Amino acid sequence: MKTLARDARQLGNLIRRARKQQTISQKVLGDRAGLRQETISLLETGNPAARVDTVLSVLAALNLELQVAPRTKGGYLPD
After folding, report:
1. DSSP code of 56?
2. Can you identify the CATH homologous superfamily of domain 8-61?
């Protein structure tokens, strides 16, 4: 199933949902990603200052990947 995230809050919700579906705690996810539990919490609450490498580490720890695609409905596509 593909799910869209267009801002930090939506991405955080997707990460939280994936973590809960795998029935793991923020601490366990943090350990898998090499991060502190507090960092996972900030990411899940939509911290807009999250670093790309942090997001990628968490996604990898959840066995997920980032895909970039043109925006649909209401999106802006440069020429």
Report:
1. H
2. lambda repressor-like DNA-binding domains (1.10.260.40)
